[in-house]
Write the structure tokens for this entry.
Amino acid sequence: MNTAVSDIEIIKAKTTKINDVDFEHLSFGKTFSDHMLVCDYKNGKWQAPKIMPYQPITLDPAAKIFHYGQSVFEGMKAYKDDNNDIFLFRPLDNWKRLNISSKRLAIPELPEHYFMDGLKALLKLDSDWIPKTAGSSLYIRPFIFASGNGFHASPSDEYKFIIACAPSGSYFAGKVKVLIEETYSRSANGGVGFAKAGGNYAGQFYPTQLAIEKGYNQVIWTDDNTHEYIEEAGAMNIFIRINDTLITGPTSDRILDGITRKSIIELAKAEGIAVDVRKITVHEVVNAAKNGTLKEMFGAGTAAVISPISGFGYHGEDFDLPKLENSYASSLKKKITDIQTNKSKDPFGWRYKV
Ligand code: PLP
Ligand code: COI
């Protein structure tokens, strides 16, 4: 049975919180819109999704999410143009990736129409929450977690799929200075690094805290085996420009297959920029920094969009990146955000009108 948008039960909030929000000075992911979508999995199937006022949820202390961390999530953004039309960016790719993540964590896959129809209905209801200020958007967090009870270490028989939305500004407040990690690992072969699993982020917090204490903002993850290859930047994929070539590592079971990453690769190629998807060593990046051929490094992700890296630390030494007038980061950021916000043509068919 298909649950069309019109079938979704909607319980409207009695009052709105929107007047308390300063849309000109939004932080990232701290205030939440009036409603959320909730869909339960029980008795072996996903039940009809419901939209209800944004509110806390009650869980049993034995809920498996607390003990075994069965949880996956996505990150998306909604934009509004001058005509108040609402747009998403490649949303079906988020739905597909949610299911890829779920499968790895033994969570039942969610049908497309629950995700898409639920999301569209929620965005229509909370459309006033989509900021129009440049650089801001409605950050959307779809997530699934094990809500069934029991201390037995086995998959839950009940889950909750929720979509919550937060009007948000930039993810990073200023420059991003990174530390290339030599000790800790984010993921390993055969592990869950390719999944957007909550536990992947929990495992990053401690090494990232250590990097912050040393004056960096973010860790650059290297491969778990040798720590010689550059893999990802915290919650972003990473791009490195040496001379005029843009390099990014190939995806693997250790790296998240970022939607921004693959869009940047296509956009850069269309702009005539040489793009090399290949493994890149720390050694090569350090050498390029020393001989002046390292022009740019930037992180790419939904939350952070494109975040230029101002410098990196490695093995006790700090390297600054040059300040470029016409960086690939700034031109590609403009290209991608113009497509996302309906300010330019979309030759790739990525924009999705809600
Ligand atoms: N890598 C990690 C670990 C992330 O958490 C994210 C954020 O979503 C990304 C990369 C970028 O992926 P996307 O561009 O699909 O948001
Ligand atoms: C995103 O870019 O959407 C992410 O999921 C990153 C998040 C961990 C803040």
Summary: The pocket of 2-OXO-4-methylpentanoic acid (ligand 2) is lined by residues 75, 201, 235, 301-303 (CB under 6 Å). Residues 118 and 137 are 19 Å apart (CA to CA). The longest helix spans residues 198-213. Residues 5-168 form a domain with the D-amino Acid Aminotransferase; Chain A, domain 1 fold (CATH 3.30.470.10).
